[in-house]
Structures are given as structure tokens and as C-alpha cells.
Design a protein that fits this description.
This protein starts with a helix and ends in a 5-residue tail after the last helix. Strands 6, 7, 8, 9, 10 and 11 form a six-stranded mixed β-sheet that branches. Helix 5 runs antiparallel to helix 6 and helix 6 runs parallel beside helix 11. 41% of the residues lie in helices and 14% in strands. The chain is of the alpha/beta class. It has eleven helices and eleven strands.
Length: 293
């Protein structure tokens, strides 16, 4: 919970500043014509943008990001960082709904309510949340057929993985951010994928997605593989994780001794569930079951 509280506080503060002072860099984007009676949809995260695109929903506002967005969003207005969107730009679009993830806390949600911005928050913390989001947005935008098509493909993949034998090899998930490292439980997105693939996450329990664990517990768990997920600034984050794993306390861990530390592609394994889930499951299944080693 400590991690979530920190993220929520940062987001709330950034959103307040965003509302008080509109970004001059985006001022040229603020005059946008809105068609009468048309849905004007704004997405505040990459994962949400991709889901709406897959459903065939036109998006007028998108987050600022280094990731490549779907072609259908060409011409859409950038509304700022997912954690601190520019409310002035969003309001200038006169949206019928802003779709965001619900993991940034109640203060984040209240900011939209207090500024009379119609919003909907979806759960993308795990695969079940992803499926519910696809279903909910399919109903919201009358795209049920497309939603069912996406869900069928995902559910077929899960069934195929259910037929695989469970692997007892011990896996640990390290979540890296610039300057800090935490442990991912089964409540984290990557932890959930490991579980679906039949993997054995040594820190599978916890009240939150990411927890702090002391070195004695890690040594006792002695994972055979360490999967590293990275949040933002991957080069800087990778350096932080590498420096941590280079400490003497890690030298007795099997995964470190045997060079089984695997850095996962953040495009597939971020904090939020996303539509790259099927490719992600295939990748993790190979890793968990040692295919290609």
C-alpha cells in the first residue's frame, strides 16, 4: 500500500498544478471543434487508448507518451502525462467521457468530479480486470461484438495454458523504478501472468501488488529465476536494479549465480494489463517453463 499511496500523492499534486497552470507547449491544441451529438472520448493511459482503438472507438484525446499509439489516434490532442493530465486541455475538448485507470487513488478521481469532467475508471491491475474493462467499454460504446471477439481470443489462450503442467521452479518478480526496487506479488499484473502460465512466484501473497521484502526472506526463498519489470525510464531503472543485484547479499541467490535474471520488455509487462496480453503470456510461458534455454 505504501507504493500506491506515494503514486497517488504524486498524481494528486501534479493534477492540481496542471489545473492551475495550463501548459503553454500545448496551447495551440486547445481550440477543438466538437460535433453535436457525437461521443468525444479522452483516454489518459496507453493501455486504455489501445483498448478503445481495438473496440473501434474514436479517441479525441490521448496521453503524452514515448510509446507508439494506434494509427487511429493520429490527429488526437495530447492531454499530458497519464499521472498528471492537463485538465485545461481536457476541458477544452468538451469530452462526453474521460476513461482512466483506477489505480492512482481517490484523489485522482475526485479531481475530475470537482472539475465537472465526465469520467469512467477501469481496473487494469490484472487479466480479470482487463476482461471486465473490455466488456464494460464494449457495452458503454455499443461495441459488444468486437469486445466478445477480443475476449474469446484471450479466454482461448488461457484455456491452452491451463493444459500445461505447473512448473515448481521458483520465480521472483522485481519491480524497478528509478532509485527503488520492490517485489511483485500475484496481485501485480506480471505476477498474475506468471500465475496463469503455471509459474511459482515465491512471493505470491500480499495485500498489494508490490511489497517491500527484507533480504533474509529473499535468501530463504532463493528464487531460481528473477523477472525484472521496469516502470518509466527503462535505462535508468535497469541501472538501479543491476546495482542492487550486484551487492554481496545477492550472490548466494540461485538466479543471480546462474545468470537467470531476465529483464522483461516494458511494452508488454507494465503496471497495467494491456492488449499485448496474449503475446505477453506466450513470452512468460516460455520463460517459466524454460523453453529456449
Amino acid at each position: 500500500m505504501k507504493y500506491k499511496r506515494i503514486i497517488s500523492m504524486i498524481a494528486a499534486g501534479a493534477m492540481t498544478l496542471s489545473f492551475m497552470s495550463c501548459s503553454s507547449d500545448n496551447s495551440e491544441n486547445k481550440s477543438v471543434a466538437v460535433g453535436t451529438g457525437e461521443e468525444v472520448v479522452v483516454a489518459t493511459s496507453v493501455a486504455v487508448t489501445e483498448i478503445l482503438d481495438a473496440l473501434g472507438v474514436k479517441v479525441s484525446g490521448v496521453p503524452s507518451t514515448s510509446y507508439e499509439l494506434p494509427e487511429s489516434t493520429e490527429g488526437a490532442v495530447e492531454i499530458g502525462n497519464p499521472m498528471s493530465p492537463d485538465l485545461e486541455i481536457i476541458k477544452s475538448l468538451n469530452p462526453t467521457v474521460v476513461v482512466s485507470v483506477d489505480t492512482l487513488g481517490e484523489d485522482y478521481k475526485k479531481t475530475f468530479t470537482q472539475n465537472n469532467i465526465p469520467s469512467e475508471f477501469v481496473n487494469l491491475t490484472n487479466v480479470d480486470g482487463l476482461k471486465e474493462t473490455i466488456k464494460t467499454l464494449g457495452e458503454r460504446f455499443d461495441k459488444n461484438d468486437k469486445a466478445n471477439e477480443i475476449l474469446k481470443e484471450l479466454e482461448d489462450k488461457e484455456v491452452s495454458l491451463d493444459n500445461k503442467e505447473k512448473n515448481d521452479e521458483k520465480v521472483m518478480i522485481l519491480f524497478g523504478a528509478p532509485g527503488s526496487v520492490m517485489i511483485g506479488t500475484d496481485k501485480s499484473y506480471t505476477g498474475n501472468l506468471v500465475q496463469i502460465c503455471g509459474g511459482n512466484n515465491v512471493f505470491n501473497e500480499g495485500n498489494s501488488s508490490y511489497i517491500q521484502v527484507n533480504m533474509e526472506e529473499i535468501i530463504k526463498a532463493n528464487p531460481d529465476k528473477i523477472l525484472v519489470t521496469m516502470h518509466a525510464l527503462p535505462d535508468e531503472t535497469k541501472k538501479t536494479v543491476a546495482e542492487e543485484l550486484a551487492k554481496d547479499s545477492w550472490k548466494s541467490i540461485n538466479a543471480v549465480k546462474n545468470n537467470k535474471v531476465i529483464y522483461l520488455d516494458s511494452e508488454y509487462f507494465g503496471m497495467s494489463a494491456n492488449l499485448k496480453v496474449i503475446e505477453g503470456l506466450d513470452m512468460l510461458s516460455d520463460i517459466v517453463h524454460g523453453i529456449g534455454e
